[in-house]
Design brief:
The complex is a heterodimer of chains A (316) and B (445).
Chain A (H helix, E strand, L loop, with lengths): L1 H11 L1 H11 L4 H30 L1 E5 L7 E5 L3 H8 L1 H33 L6 H13 L2 H12 L5 H8 L12 H26 L3 H9 L4 H12 L1 H16 L3 H6 L12 H10 L3 H29 L3
Antiparallel strand pairs in A: 1-2
Chain B lengths: L1 H24 L21 E7 L4 H11 L3 E7 L4 H10 L6 E5 L3 H6 L10 H5 L6 H7 L8 E14 H6 L8 H14 L6 E2 L5 H10 L5 E4 L2 E4 L4 H15 L3 E2 L7 H8 L5 E5 L3 H7 L7 E4 L12 E9 L6 H13 L1 H11 L6 H4 L16 H10 L11 H16 L5 H18 L4 E3 L2
Parallel strand pairs in B: 1-2, 1-3, 5-8, 7-12
Antiparallel strand pairs in B: 3-11, 4-9, 4-10, 4-11, 6-7
Classes of the chains: A mainly alpha (316), B alpha/beta (445).
Protein name (chain B): Extracellular solute-binding protein
Organism (chain B): Streptomyces liangshanensis
Keywords (chain B): Signal
Chain lengths: 316, 445
């Protein structure tokens, strides 16, 4: 079993192997380079260059020649912008806010996704492709559109859901100070559960059927097969979806930004990305760049930290 | 061997990326010296100008100009979606248009980014001074230091009143803010489902209009420094008043201006008045057609006995840096904002309330408006416009201050803090944001 496990993980980390093979060369290296150019060119233009530009900007500061509307220019400022970021209490409270968001939303979403993937994988379920499409469907809706749709369902003036609950004597305030974070979390969960389910479901599909047959012969129930065999077998894909979700949480923007239109309980600095946007819209591009770099570093540390932690646990 | 070759290739790619990065920012390394007044020479031959704006129907106004002026053709682009982001990015890329629509409160910010060209070398531009409402001219010329834009429209404020609800509950038209609060109390006591108005915590622009009415001078410049008095006795009087309205539950705080939710609340007869600007007249007409005949517009309540009003919104058409055709830009800009035919069209298609007395004196504005029970509503706005404090100045980091003010206003509305705290927050944000952009500033006068 550990053998198969390792094989799957190696599949996930395929890029590592590919690089080693490329360096190992042989006469086909030129061909490989030719095939990779269409990838590397946009990668450099639209990924490396903007990232490099952001890092460069984050080390610059604005200076001015004086006068009421004096001429401005930028110059090298060392770590000055980073100093501002670390002193910025709004930045740290936005990090704390999405930390809380992630700690609750990510496990809930992945648990639901896992249950759905397992259900889809049982022979008991009929209309499999219908359910698969139905759960995956929200992912096809653009995030902003989903947020606008949900904001109507949350809005006390317009929502049939609120009307219905009020009819039952309940008075929910989805946009209130305590609830609005979870209303945003609900939109994210609705959007991304199907996507994560699909990754887990594909991993389940690649588990050899003989394992189940052997377990059944040993007298294992469907329940035991699910928890003792299927879940451990797809652990790498669960790790992968968790890493994606951590990254997604730190990038959170569309849902709170849309809810902000109808709720005054979402500030302009609600999430780190919203803060970066607000600072950039105040024409402080250099500080916005520093904020973005810090967000990227935190994302990097958290996602790789999580990967290392889980791979050590799994004894790999 | 192969190994080395691919490493070299990688290094080349990295170097190319580095060069691209360096090339991308070298333009902002040195202060540029284009702040001197530009010359005003007519071009030889045909000219095409770029004009970016957010006004509905502006393409038709421009089409009229293009028909009459074959030698100065104007191309428009609508930038309603992220107006200032688009302008700032274009400036950074050196691809700004000849002319762009800029709100009064955004002018100083763009001015500190060297976004404009001074058109005072053009006689027609300086001569336009007499054609505009004085406070608008003072803002576009930065109190006479040049001509960086021409005023387009304004938002003189007034009180929109649901006459039928007022009559039904025996309310009087309030002359002062104290009377307004008293009537609000009466109304809410008569029917708890009714409130006088709403306080939009997400709308610093509106709140600034209220501060403006009370002559809250928030920024001034002297002795080589900006002086920040966002948190002053005048502004605190306004903040404390609305804080009390919020505390006494006399205003709602759950509605955003212009939102579907706001119209729904008005549609359901839950709110009896609206503190708004001239451009709002078409909002109610178009979104609440069933309430035709029920609305009236009266002067904004005042703080004392003398008439005073604030401005909410309004825009200018700015001369953008990099324009190669200043002479032609001035010609078009002047026509756009002072010609009766152009102004009539802008009012009809875009709902603009002109910054020029020529525009506000148009015969079509002297008529009674059917939606407002035939009331000559523009007389009220014209009077309001006359009572706007001409010395009001926006800060050079107004957008950042507004965002911070809004966040703090929302906290106050949620019961965590007060509007007076919000002013304190805005004051400190004003100082810190100026420091970040190397603009010398100090607290107090």
């Amino acid at each position: 079993m550990t053998d198969t496990d390792a094989r799957v993980i190696r599949g996930v980390a395929a890029s590592k192997g590919a690089r080693r093979r490329l360096n190992g060369g042989g006469p086909r290296a030129g061909v490989i380079t030719a095939f990779l150019t269409p990838f590397f060119l946009p990668f450099v233009l639209f990924y490396l260059v903007p990232v490099g530009y952001a890092i460069w900007q984050s080390f610059r500061v604005v200076r001015r020649t004086g006068g009421q509307y004096g001429t401005s220019y930028t110059t090298f400022g060392g770590f000055e912008q980073y100093g501002h970021v670390f002193e910025n209490t709004e930045f740290w409270s936005s990090i704390g806010r999405i930390g809380l968001f992630g700690i609750v939303q990510v496990p809930v979403m992945l648990f639901v996704a896992l249950i759905m993937a397992l259900l889809l994988d049982t022979p008991l379920l009929k209309l499999k492709s219908f359910f698969r499409i139905a759960v995956f469907m929200p992912y096809a809706v653009p995030g902003v559109i989903a947020a606008i749709m949900w904001s109507y369902l949350y809005s006390p003036q317009l929502s049939p859901v609120v009307d219905l609950l009020q009819g039952l004597g309940l008075h929910p305030d989805f946009l209130g100070p305590g609830a609005v974070l979870w209303s945003a979390a609900n939109i994210s969960t609705w959007l991304w559960t199907g996507y994560n389910m699909l990754i887990m479901y594909s991993a389940l599909q690649s588990v050899p059927q003989e394992l189940y047959e052997a377990a059944k012969l040993d007298g294992a129930s469907n329940w035991a097969i699910a928890w003792r065999i299927k879940v451990p077998m797809i652990a790498p894909s669960i790790v992968l979806t968790t890493v994606f979700s951590i990254i997604g949480t730190l990038q959170l923007y569309a849902e709170p930004a849309v809810l902000r239109q109808i709720s005054s309980n979402i500030s302009s600095t609600y999430t780190p990305n919203m803060l970066a946007y607000a600072v950039a819209s105040g024409n402080n591009y250099q500080q916005a760049a520093a904020i973005s770099v810090v967000i990227a570093l935190i994302t990097f540390v958290l996602s790789f930290g999580f990967m290392r932690l889980t791979s050590k646990r799994a004894g790999l | 061997m192969r190994n080395t070759a691919s490493r070299v290739r990688l290094a080349a790619v990295a170097a190319a990326a580095g060069i691209a990065v360096l090339a991308g920012c070298s333009s902002s390394d040195k202060p540029d010296s284009s702040s001197a007044a530009a010359s005003c020479e007519p071009a030889k031959g045909k000219v095409t100008l770029q004009y970016w704006n957010t006004v509905p129907g502006m393409d038709q106004v421009v089409a009229l100009w293009n028909k009459k002026n074959p030698d100065i053709q104007v191309q428009t682009k609508n930038i309603s979606n992220d107006q200032y982001g688009t302008i700032s990015n274009a400036l950074k890329a050196g691809k700004a248009p000849d002319l762009a629509q800029v709100g009064y409160d955004e002018l100083p910010n763009l001015r500190t980014q060297n976004a404009f060209v001074d058109a005072s070398a053009c006689k027609e531009a300086t001569a336009a001074k007499s054609k505009f409402v004085p406070w608008t001219w003072s803002q576009t010329s930065f109190a006479g230091t040049g001509v960086f834009a021409l005023p387009q429209d304004t938002g003189p404020m007034a009180l929109y009143v649901r006459s039928d609800l007022f009559k039904q509950h025996g309310l009087a038209i309030p002359k002062t803010w104290d009377e307004y609060a008293a009537e609000a109390k009466k109304l809410h006591a008569a029917d708890p489902k009714l409130t006088m108005t709403f306080f939009d915590p997400n709308n610093a622009e509106w709140f600034n209009g209220l501060l403006w009415q009370n002559s809250a001078e928030m920024y001034s410049y002297s002795g080589g420094k900006w002086h920040v008095t966002v948190d002053s006795a005048q502004s605190r009087q306004v903040a404390d008043y609305w804080q009390k309205m919020i505390d006494d539950k006399l205003v709602r705080t759950d509605l955003a201006n212009g939102s579907t939710q706001m119209y729904a609340a008005y549609q359901q007869n839950q709110i009896a008045s609206y503190v708004g600007a001239a451009w709002g007249y078409s909002m109610f007409r178009d979104n609440l057609p069933k309430q035709s005949g029920k609305w009236a517009i009266v002067p904004m309540p005042t703080w004392g006995t003398s008439a005073a009003s604030g401005d909410w919104g309004g825009s200018t058409v700015a001369f953008m840096k990099g324009s190669k055709h200043l002479y032609e830009s001035v010609k078009f800009n002047t026509w756009l904002n002072t010609d009766p035919e152009a102004l009539a069209l802008e009012n009809k298609l875009g709902g603009l309330y002109s910054a020029s007395p020529v525009g506000t004196g148009l015969p079509q504005l002297a008529q009674g408006v059917p939606y407002y029970a035939g009331q000559k509503i523009f007389d009220v706005f014209a009077e309001s416009s006359k009572n706007i404090d001409t010395s009001f100045t926006w800060g050079p980091t107004q957008k950042t201050v507004n965002l911070s003010l809004q966040d703090a206003m929302a906290k106050a509305a949620a019961g965590k803090g007060t509007l007076a705290d919000a002013l304190k927050t805005a004051q400190s944000t004003a100082l810190s944001s100026m420091k970040d952009l190397a603009i010398p500033a100090q607290a107090g006068k």
